[in-house]
Amino acid sequence: MSPPSRIVIAHRGASGYLPEHTLPAYALAHGMGADYIEPDLVLTRDGHLICLHDIYLQATTNVEQVFPSRAREDGRWYAADFSLAEIRRLEARERLSNRFPRGRSRFAVPSFAEMIELVQGLNERTGRTVGIYPEIKAPAWHRAQGLPMEAALLELLERYGYRKPGAPVFVQSFEPESLKRLRALGSKLPQVLLMAEVEQYQRFLSPEGIASIAAFADGIGPAKTMLERQPELIGWARDAGLIIHPYTFRADQVPDRHGSHEAELERYLFELGVDGVFTDYPDRARAVLDDR
Ligand code: G3P
Ligand code: CA
Fold first, then answer.
1. Cα–Cα nearest to 158, from 200, 124, 201, 189
2. 284 close to ligand 1 (CB < 6 Angstrom)
3. At what angle do helices 112-126 and 150-159 cross, to 10 degrees?
């Protein structure tokens, strides 16, 4: 695909301001000028995609209070053990102690369908076309639980009109096999392979390795530090026709060497020349891009 202009991807919604993966966080991201909004997705026991970063519930909900006896032997409450009706009984909570004050207001865990309907409704009311950027979390693990994610994802995207390569959606995963499976199921939607600084991605960190990604994806989503450490990845990706969307930019976690959040964004967007950024603070990235 041809590189789009640089985009702001609201990471877990406007999660710097409101609890991640809640409808208010997604709505705020839309209002702040995000181009795409990211839901992380997991499956419930009865096969519904819900917006949640972890395959567990305890870090961002009150599941321990509502279902005290439903943890597995490892002491964790898995979303895959709960029905959507049960998930709806939970309150969503801020993950981080330095962000939205815990215990204030009331939030819920949305389904992916509800997230899409919110974004599409806001698109209709504002005349903007904000896209969605879903990440399927731990698809191999879900498959082992008897809950394959890929067909469920495509069915929902199809239902809401995300069908063709030009649709305002990117599908992302850390697992190459899952992206290949989506292609095998016939999906022509844009796909991005996420990469972290761990051994399993070493095989991709060469011109040939990066080029091999183009067989099943349209772009890469590396941890931003991978680009600082190995900026030649960007040229290799360009040569392979891949776009580059690094993660994650956070105004409250700026590496010392950049001096400010804006300086860090400018470094990646204008010096390294990436195609977009995953950010918890979509307003700040929007302002940096609009000021150019
Ligand atoms: O999807 C990009 C980035 O969100 C990957 O990290 O852990 O925040 O999902 P994570
Ligand atoms: Ca993600």
1. 189
2. no
3. 30
Distance in angstroms (rounded) separating the CA atoms of residues 31 and 25: 10
Cα separation, 174 vs 53, whole angstroms: 13
Active site residue 53: yes
Question: Angle, nearest 10°, between helix axes 112-126 and 23-31?
Answer: 30
Nearest to 193 by CA among 170, 214, 176, 211: 176
- Closest by CA to 169, choosing from 194, 139, 191, is 191
pTM for this entry: 0.97
- Active-site residue 30, yes or no? no
Residue among 225, 244, 248, 277 whose CB has most ligand 1 atoms within 8 A, to mutate: 248
- CB of 194 sitting under 6 A from ligand 1: yes
| Active-site entry in 30, 48, 53, 142 | 53
Mean pLDDT by 10 residues, the chain (292 residues): 74 98 99 98 98 98 98 98 98 97 96 99 98 98 98 98 95 98 98 98 98 98 97 98 98 96 98 98 98 91
Rounded CA separation 292/290 (Å): 5
How far is Cα 191 from Cα 80, in angstroms, rounded to an integer?
25
15 vs 34, 39, 116, 231, CA distance in Å? 12, 11, 17, 28
